[in-house]
UniProtKB/TrEMBL annotation:
Assigned keywords, A-Z: ATP-binding, Nucleotide-binding, Transport
Protein's name in the database: Phosphate ABC transporter ATP-binding protein PstB
SMART domains assigned: AAA
Domain of life from the UniProt record: Bacteria
Family annotation (CDD domains): ABC_PstB_phosphate_transporter (cd03260)
PROSITE patterns in the record: ABC_TRANSPORTER_1, ABC_TRANSPORTER_2
Organism: Halobacillus seohaensis
Length: 283
């Protein structure tokens, strides 16, 4: 056991210590990544119930950032705060700052529509529209005013290719997306998110409703997508976080307890509560 781990586990003062939150530790020799999101002192309330406490966390560009923690710790709330989707709940109040590409999403003149285009979201259960595969993917571009069939055709093909589903659906573009398997539907939903050219893709437990083979396909896809996009993924599955992410954040009771390089967090966590969670002592 390393000295740090031994100390963390055995020293009373360390057990009581405030969470250590470290951002963007880079491996020697790698270029530091730019932050696509910078979150400072984020608090969030549903009415009088506080769900997030003083969250400080930077999200690097072109990386996969995993959010883990027990049920009810605020993972989905945090994710939906990033594109202001959480405000669809009317009783939500926030304080603090969320900067997306250096712009304060609450103060600067960023419309919610623009933000949700650039910061796309994929949900736990595949939620295609009851339309053809083609119309699902073309939906966003059409809303943005693209009408020419040739351009829409290109966008649909590129998005489906980027979502690693083109070969499976290219001969059934006009069939209803409901006729696809759950795993295929989820990749069509990812293609639908990609079709409006986002920067960031937020994924809220995107594989929890999928079988192991479909899960593997989505995990491989996440690895490919980070070349072009920044990804934030909420997952209950710690093996999944360890497999797909570069950085991992552990939340507990609305607090960000620890945020670090994924290898570091799983192999040598700094906080006893992280250690307890990842070793299955609670949650
Ligand atoms: N619409 C809502 N109205 C009131 N409270 C809410 C609402 N949504 C979430 N909460 C509360 O906020 C806290 C955080 O919930 P959240 O869904 O973000 O947790 P989570 O970590 O994503 O949980 P899970 O892993 O079970 O999905 C919980 O106490 C929850 O009850």
């Amino acid at each position: 056991m390393s000295k740090l781990k031994e100390k963390t586990l055995n020293t009373k003062s360390n057990l009581d210590f405030r969470p250590t939150v470290t951002n963007n530790i880079e491996k020697p020799g790698t270029e530091p990544k730019r932050n696509v999101f910078e979150i400072d002192d984020l608090n969030l309330w549903y009415g009088s119930t506080q769900a997030l406490y003083e969250v400080n966390m930077n999200i690097p560009e072109n990386q996969v950032t995993a959010i883990i923690g027990p049920s009810g710790c605020g993972k989905s709330t945090y994710l939906k705060a990033l594109n202001r989707m959480v405000e669809m709940v009317p009783i939500v109040k926030t304080s603090g700052t969320i900067k997306y590409n250096n712009q304060n999403i609450y103060k600067d003149k960023i419309s919610q529509e623009y933000l949700r285009t650039k910061v796309g979201m994929v949900f736990q259960k595949p939620n295609p529209f009851p339309k053809s595969v083609y119309d699902n993917v073309a939906y966003g571009p059409r809303v943005h005013g693209i009408k020419k069939k040739a351009i829409l055709d290109q966008i649909v093909e590129k998005s489906l290719k980027d979502a690693a589903i083109w070969d499976e659906v290219k001969d059934r573009l006009n069939q209803n997306a409901y006729g696809l398997s759950g795993g295929q539907q989820q990749r069509v939903c990812i293609a639908r998110a990609l079709a409006v050219e986002p920067d960031v893709i937020l994924m809220d437990e995107p594989t929890s409703a999928l079988d192991p083979i479909s899960t593997l396909k989505v995990e491989e896809l996440v690895q490919e997508l980070k070349e072009k996009y920044s990804i934030v993924i909420v997952t209950h599955n710690m093996q999944q976080a360890a497999r797909v992410s570069d950085r991992t954040a552990f939340f507990l009771n609305g607090e960000l307890i620890e945020y670090d390089d994924t290898n570091k967090l799983f192999q040598n966590p700094s906080d006893k509560r992280t250690e307890d969670y990842i070793t299955g002592r609670f949650g």
